[in-house]
Specification:
Layout lengths: L28 E2 L3 E2 L17 E2 L8 E6 L3 E7 L4 E4 L1 H4 L5 E5 L12 E5 L1 E4 L13 E4 L29 E6 L14 E8 L1 H8 L7 E4 L15 E6 L2 E12 L9 E5 L4 H8 L6
Parallel strand pairs: 1-5, 2-15
Antiparallel strand pairs: 3-12, 4-5, 4-7, 5-6, 6-10, 7-8, 9-10, 11-12, 11-14, 12-13, 13-16, 14-15, 15-16
Length: 284
């Protein structure tokens, strides 16, 4: 699944208008951002490739599938009835978003699924495509969506968690991204459980690309996010509540299954920005 390798220059294959009824296709370009490993980065030894698991319908009701100008693809998460959180590299050059909510299989007909078209976005003003800093954005939906058993919002961290590195925590990442570096976007929603690593450990692979506003997950068992998972949620469960602490951002240019960490925008670093631009209240 879940792979995200995005080249420092973002891949936007030719953008062309496609009727909404044709969206749900799998022949779209998964967004891809990758960075080179630093010289002397630790070697990764893994015995086999371990893929994620297929999600059941309604297992991740906050998950959004986002078609970008009908030719590229990213993930996102519903944080309120009117806003989807995603990555800046997904939204920056896009004028039209087709958002699927309550979906599990992209190409199949599903009851309770909602498809919304939006032309309104808010990209972090300090997003830098060269350093991938501040890789976070919002998609504003034209009207509030109704919450159902298949469509729910995801909680954001309270301010009390701002100093929590989450290192060692088990997190879940979900999306329709490639299940291996060479495959196409998945028709089925998949997920994988990963372990958060320290930023120090992550910077031994990616150097200065790792900032205080980055959070990384271990990839040594060759699981992780991949192309097309960009913008999707990294979620931790605490006290029985699921909380989004990351937004899929970038990985290694050596491929999704090479066994290297994957990097995410650290949501706790952007709580004020999210609240100011979406109106979502952040708890203490």
């Amino acid at each position: 699944m879940i792979a995200i390798t995005f080249a420092l220059t973002l891949l936007f294959a030719s953008l062309q208008a496609v009727p909404v009824e044709e969206v749900g296709r799998l022949d779209v370009t998964p967004m891809d951002v990758s960075v080179p490993l630093v010289e002397g980065a630790p070697e990764v030894v893994a015995p086999k490739i371990v893929n994620g698991q297929q999600a059941t319908r309604g297992q991740f009701p906050y998950q959004a599938a986002v078609y970008l100008d009908s030719s590229s693809f990213c993930g996102g998460s519903l944080i309120s009835t009117t806003f989807v959180l995603t990555a800046a590299h997904c939204a920056q050059s896009v004028s039209r978003f087709t958002v699927y909510l309550g979906a599990q299989a992209l190409s199949a007909s599903e009851s309770g699924r909602v498809i919304v078209t939006s032309t309104s976005k808010i990209v972090h003003a300090s997003y830098n495509p060269s350093t991938i800093a501040n890789d976070i954005a919002l998609i504003r939906l034209p009207s509030a969506v109704s919450l159902t058993s298949f469509i729910q919002t995801i909680a954001l961290p309270g301010r009390s968690l701002s100093s929590n590195s989450f290192a060692g925590s088990t997190v879940t990442v979900s999306g329709w991204g490639r299940t291996a570096t060479s495959t196409s976007v998945s028709n089925q929603l998949n997920y994988v459980d990963l372990t958060v690593i320290t930023n120090s450990a992550c910077s031994s692979f990616f150097g200065s690309y790792i900032l205080a506003s980055t959070i990384c997950a271990d990839g040594s068992n060759r699981q992780g996010s991949c192309n097309g998972d960009s913008g999707g949620p990294m979620v931790v469960t605490s006290g029985g509540q699921r909380i989004q602490i990351g937004v899929v951002s970038f990985g290694s240019g050596l491929g999704c299954t090479a066994g290297y960490p994957t990097a995410y925008a650290r949501v706790t670093s952007f709580l004020d920005w999210i609240s100011t631009n979406s109106g979502v209240a952040i708890s203490a």
